[in-house]
């Protein structure tokens, strides 16, 4: 993909459904007693992986007029071939939790990136719950021998991970008694909100989350809010291009996901949220952005670290790009988890920002970017990672000269419409 600089980004739009919420809504609908109808389901390739795995497990899912219909009341059956999770960590890890609590054997496989990501974080708690899991060096493929009678556990997560928390909660649905997960710092809470929204009470108390099994979902209708992590690229682009005016409607505003809006506001963005509503406990609304940086950030507003990191995790490469335009630059620490995503996102961000002329220091657990810097067009290596490709597409809009992004088709993992929508909003 070749991109040239832009003057403004203008428009009003709605986005396909949130990827994280879509994975969970599909799993819940598949495990419900009653029927479900899901509207605005994510168009991400990752979510298609979840649907493909569920179909292999015997769940009938009909796709009519852009809505997904689940019959409900179906039992998972042993698949006849390995379940292909593609590039999707959420599919593999959360589905492993579902399978751990069912009396069947299944193999979970993924692409090269997913097969190099750490899985001991789910193997350990799911084995404590009674599943037997074979892996190679703690990585996928995973062969899971589930237990029809999983053991309820109280588990302290060694790393803050919503995928691991969710895996344990899904396994806990079939356990007799209380399953509790204690987090080191709060992570996205879609599983908790949707369990409550579909009839399985989950109690959150500070950093602990508990459900009482056995429990079944009711099923029902849901419209998935627009994906706030997809919105982030357009919001940042609008902030960085003065005179932009952008409105994104019906987008998810869950506080465990939307923290980047606060960060961009600290950095001087003119952002407001209006028309707030909820769907199955998930807040959503309209994001309004006017372009330009209206004030300077204070020192501690330019450091992102500790318990803030999980609620910014997928936006950190984008915030590093935006931070290169902030007086005094920005610092990201305590974000070593970024090295374990679809690519090593710290290394990829540092390498590509440097290629565009930014001054960047790399740490084991973060980076510092000096600012403000006039970026220059460059050849960007996306490393096949959707979030890197999209963050650097935003950088390309504010750079001098042309930028070429290698491997840009990877945006389909979370947001196939990205480049088309960007073109329709940009004024050159
Ligand atoms: C996700 C959780 C996060 C996030 C990922 C989606 C989820 O991963 O980075 O894009 O849907 O639960 P971790 O749980 O590994 O932090």
Description:
There is one protein chain. By secondary structure, the protein is an alpha/beta fold. The chain has two domains: 2-16 and 225-427, Alpha-beta prism (UDP-n-acetylglucosamine1-carboxyvinyl-transferase, Chain), CATH 3.65.10.10; 19-212 and 219-223, UDP-n-acetylglucosamine1-carboxyvinyl-transferase, Chain (Alpha-beta prism), CATH 3.65.10. The protein is 29% helix and 26% strand. The chain has twelve helices and 24 strands. A five-stranded mixed β-sheet has the order 16-17-15-2-24. Strands 4-5-3-14 form a four-stranded mixed β-sheet. The longest helix is centred in the middle third of the chain and has 13 residues, at 228-240. The two termini are 17 Å apart. It binds shikimate-3-phosphate.
Descriptors:
single chain; 428 residues; alpha/beta; UDP-n-acetylglucosamine1-carboxyvinyl-transferase, Chain; 2 domains; 5-stranded mixed β-sheet; 4-stranded mixed β-sheet; 12 helices; 24 strands; 29% helix; globular; binds shikimate-3-phosphate
């Amino acid at each position: 993909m070749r991109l040239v600089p832009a003057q403004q980004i203008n428009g009003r739009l709605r986005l396909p459904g949130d990827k994280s919420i879509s994975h969970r809504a599909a799993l819940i609908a598949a495990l419900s007693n009653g029927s479900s109808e899901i509207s605005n389901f994510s168009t991400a390739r990752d979510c298609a992986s979840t649907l493909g795995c569920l179909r292999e497990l015997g769940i009938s899912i009909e796709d009519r007029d852009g809505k997904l219909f689940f019959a409900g009341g179906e039992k998972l059956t042993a698949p006849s071939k390995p379940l292909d999770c593609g590039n999707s960590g959420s599919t593999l890890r959360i589905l492993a939790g579902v399978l751990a609590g069912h009396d069947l054997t299944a193999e979970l496989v993924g692409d090269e990136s997913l097969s190099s990501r750490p899985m001991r974080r789910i193997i350990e708690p799911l084995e404590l719950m009674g599943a037997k899991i074979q892996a190679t060096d703690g990585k996928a493929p995973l062969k899971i021998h589930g237990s029809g009678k999983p053991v309820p556990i109280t588990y302290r997560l060694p790393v803050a991970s919503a995928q691991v928390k969710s895996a344990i909660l899904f396994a806990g649905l079939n356990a007799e008694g209380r399953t509790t997960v204690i987090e080191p710092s709060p992570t996205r809470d879609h599983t908790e909100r949707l369990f409550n929204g579909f009839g399985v009470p989950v109690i959150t108390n500070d950093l602990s989350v508990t459900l009482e099994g056995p429990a079944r979902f009711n099923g029902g209708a849901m419209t998935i809010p627009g994906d706030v992590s997809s919105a982030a690229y357009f919001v940042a682009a609008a902030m960085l291009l003065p005179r932009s005016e952008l409105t994104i409607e019906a987008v998810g505003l869950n506080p465990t996901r939307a923290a980047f809006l606060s960060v961009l506001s600290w950095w001087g963005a003119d952002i407001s949220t209006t028309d707030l509503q909820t769907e199955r406990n998930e807040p959503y609304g309209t994001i309004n952005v006017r372009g330009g940086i209206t004030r300077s950030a204070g020192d501690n507003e330019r450091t992102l670290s500790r318990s803030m990191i999980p609620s910014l995790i997928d936006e950190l490469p984008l915030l590093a790009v935006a931070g290169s335009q902030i007086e005094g630059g920005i610092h990201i620490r305590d974000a070593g988890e970024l090295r374990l995503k679809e690519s090593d996102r710290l290394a990829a961000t540092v390498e590509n920002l440097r290629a565009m002329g930014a001054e960047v220091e790399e740490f084991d657990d973060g980076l510092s970017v000096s600012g403000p810097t006039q970026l220059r067009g460059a050849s960007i290596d996306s490393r096949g990672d959707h979030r890197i490709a999209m963050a650097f597409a935003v950088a390309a809009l504010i750079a001098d000269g042309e930028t070429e992004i290698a491997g840009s088709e990877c945006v389909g993992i979370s947001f196939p419409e990205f480049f088309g929508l960007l073109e329709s909003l940009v004024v050159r």
